[in-house]
């Protein structure tokens, strides 16, 4: 199946419900995508060109994704809240032929685009902005039937840039028209509780990110209705699940944490029995948080390990996780896992090394960085720098990212383990653990915590004691600092370089 086939077979089925509650059918979605495909071609976009978008969670995001996917174009979604410097990087690095943006973004990026050669003719906004054209008029006078010539496009997504400037991940475009959702893709979806047929998928995360956007498109390919939230709100998630009888959703662990913080009477107020799959990934989930979510929702919580570069690599169900708490699951169909040491030799089961895997999706490259692309490969296996181990049953257990690893006195300390302990304290809303230079030990463990309620000067001492009760002595933070807010990306990843840079 594919979203195009769904539109042919079920044109009246609801495809998207926007934040106002307005409903767009599959037939309407594809007709608009067909107009956009023709409009982009009229603007001079040809195979391999890029369409850069800075768009919130609105139906247009999905329209553009579906249009570029049948036009031989790269869809390049980036964060609409990008800084001026970040946007300049995206605009110059991706070299787009067309830019589509929210009005507030458009108003402050016109000069950058002029310098990059993107003229007014190829700039579109959703509200009136000087020097920009109206997106809603793009292609509306063009035919809405299926284009005679269709060419498979793709997505070019920028990595989150948690430890440096974001890099675009690009794959070669396949030949021919858009391919149907093949058996491997269907099997991969099924591992996470996503099956073909009617259902309702709730989008609570930013669509521009690879995980949420990918799962929303996955839901459309399978025939589900996609319900959009403008931004995450813990109780609103519950309300929408009950109202729309949501079956599937993609969340991140920080959202779990906030949902669990809701008062028991609020959590009990809503009927969540329609849920069949609550998928999480993108960041480590403290075991106690995941256990609490399973206790609340039942065994509908699924987890995956993957990346922008690699796609979906492993998956685990609630039952599989309960049998081996902490596991990120076993390999997806067609994927192989290896754990290698620093000399690229396989390590025994149970021993920590760098996680490598065969590609779940076609070969990728970091745009304009052959050296980084080559460094990520060993034979036909690739890595994004995560550390982990495999047990005798082939289950993957992640420890941390190599760049986050703290080495103190020659001993490896994984920040995620210390953060999980801190997050288990009822007065902690969020936590980040980093390594700071130490003349004696090489590095020392330092924690930054965001409290549930500010103003408790005794919190650092209480947390230190809490850590001593649950962690080995060498893992206990040498210093705990309380901050108003920690710098996470909208997809839930901690921006550690900002924490370490003192910009928290």
UniProtKB/TrEMBL annotation:
Name of the featured protein: Acyl-CoA synthetase
GO MF annotations in UniProt: medium-chain fatty acid-CoA ligase activity
UniProt GO BP: fatty acid metabolic process
Cited InterPro entries: AMP-bd_C, AMP-bd_C_sf, AMP-binding_CS, AMP-dep_synth/lig_dom, ANL_N_sf
Signal peptide region: none
Domain of life, per lineage: Bacteria
Domain AMP-binding enzyme C-terminal: residue ranges: 417-493
């Amino acid at each position: 199946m594919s979203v195009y086939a769904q539109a042919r077979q079920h044109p009246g089925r609801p495809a998207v419900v926007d934040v106002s509650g307005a409903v767009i059918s599959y037939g309407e979605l594809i007709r608009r995508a067909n107009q956009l495909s023709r409009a982009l071609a009229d603007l001079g976009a040809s195979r391999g060109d890029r369409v850069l978008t800075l768009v919130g969670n609105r139906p247009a995001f999905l329209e553009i994704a579906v249009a570029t996917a049948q036009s031989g174009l790269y869809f390049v979604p980036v964060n609409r809240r990008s800084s001026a410097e970040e946007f300049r990087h995206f605009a110059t690095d991706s070299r787009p032929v067309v830019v589509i943006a929210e009005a507030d973004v458009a108003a402050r990026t016109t000069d950058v685009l002029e310098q990059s050669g993107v003229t007014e003719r190829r700039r579109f906004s959703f509200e009136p902005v000087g020097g920009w054209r109206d997106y809603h008029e793009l292609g509306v006078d063009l035919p809405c039937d299926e284009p005679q010539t269709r060419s498979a496009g793709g997505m070019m997504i920028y990595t989150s840039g948690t430890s440096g400037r974001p890099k675009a991940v690009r794959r070669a475009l396949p030949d021919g028209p858009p391919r149907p959702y093949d058996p491997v893709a269907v099997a991969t979806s099924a591992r996470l509780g996503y099956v073909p047929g009617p259902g309702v998928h709730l989008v609570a995360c930013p669509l521009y990110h690879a995980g949420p956007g990918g799962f929303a498109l996955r839901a459309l390919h399978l025939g589900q209705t996609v319900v959009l939230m403008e931004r995450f709100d813990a109780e609103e998630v519950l309300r929408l699940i009950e109202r729309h009888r949501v079956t599937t959703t993609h969340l991140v662990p920080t959202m779990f944490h906030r949902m669990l913080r809701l008062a028991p009477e609020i959590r009990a107020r809503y009927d969540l029995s329609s849920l069949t799959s609550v998928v999480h990934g993108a960041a480590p989930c403290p075991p106690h948080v995941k256990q609490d979510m399973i206790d609340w929702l039942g065994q509908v919580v699924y987890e995956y390990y993957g990346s922008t570069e690699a796609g979906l690599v492993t998956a685990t169900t609630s039952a599989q996780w309960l049998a081996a708490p902490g596991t990120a699951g076993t390999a997806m169909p067609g994927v192989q896992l290896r754990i290698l040491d620093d000399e690229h030799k396989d390590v025994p089961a149970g021993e920590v090394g760098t996680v490598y895997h065969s590609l779940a999706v076609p070969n990728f490259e970091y745009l304009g960085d052959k050296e980084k692309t080559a460094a990520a490969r060993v034979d036909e296996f690739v890595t994004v720098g995560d550390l982990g181990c495999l047990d005798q049953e082939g289950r993957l257990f992640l420890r941390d990212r190599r760049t986050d690893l703290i080495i103190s006195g020659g001993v490896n300390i994984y920040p995620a383990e210390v953060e999980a302990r801190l997050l288990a304290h009822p007065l902690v809303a969020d936590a980040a653990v980093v390594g700071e230079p130490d003349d004696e030990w090489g590095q020392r463990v330092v924690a930054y915590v965001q409290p549930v309620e500010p103003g408790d000067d005794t919190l650092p001492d209480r947390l230190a004691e809490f850590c001593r009760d649950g962690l080995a002595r060498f893992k206990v933070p040498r210093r705990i600092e309380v901050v108003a807010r920690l710098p996470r990306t909208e997809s839930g990843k901690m921006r550690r370089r900002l924490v370490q840079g003192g910009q928290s």
